[in-house]
Amino acid sequence: MDNDKCPSLWRIANWWTSHAVENIMANTQACRLFEENQDLLNMFEKFRQYRTKEEQINSMELAEHANNVMNTLDEGIKGLDDLDNFFEYIHQVGASHRRIPGFKVEYFWKIETPFLAAVEATLGDRYTPNVENIYKITIKFILQTLVDGYEKSAKAGANAIST
Fold first, then answer.
1. 111-136 residue pLDDT tens
2. Residues 6+ apart with CB under 8 A from 148
């Protein structure tokens, strides 16, 4: 990535490590996401039974899903230094959500606040206004790329049907 054109994204791609992802408490992030958005919890048959915060925190299935979400964000952030691969990967992940019954494109944006809260909790005093701004830009960029992949897959499917 040309770090002169996109210095904030270059910086976060270089700061981010798998170790950081482990410390971001993916399970807590998922619990907050589902606490604030019960409609999302209902989309997943295997998660519907977890109504209380305690049940959600103790759920291995929910922890696995949270880890998958965090791994996607991790791969996205680490891939920012190779934008061709970044776009290919994140677009594919966005497109894959077409297979989830009842999924709506706006659901991607619901991860933004829990993600930023988890980063803030993890970084503590190191979560300065500058770092916050960089993470906000980065998560918005990743989420918009997921949306683009989701929407492009619908257009590709419509074009395939019409030809």
1. 999 888 888 888 889 899 999 999 99
2. 91, 94
CATH superfamily for domain 7-162: Globins (1.10.490.10)
Residue 79 exposure: Cα atoms within 13 Å on the Cβ side:
18
Amino acid letter, 158: A
Number of residues assigned to the chain = 163
The sign of the torsion formed by the CA atoms of 8, 14, 18, 24 equals: negative
Q: Where are the domains of the chain?
A: 7-162
The pLDDT of residue 37 is 79
The Cα–Cα gap between 111 and 158 comes to 28
**The token pair that represents 63 in the structure block:** 């922890």
Question: Residue by residue, what is the 3-state secondary structure of 40-70?
Answer: HHHHCHHHCCCCCHHHHHCCHHHHHHHHHHH
How far is the C-alpha of 129 from the C-alpha of 49, rounded, in Å? 38
pTM, two decimal places: 0.77
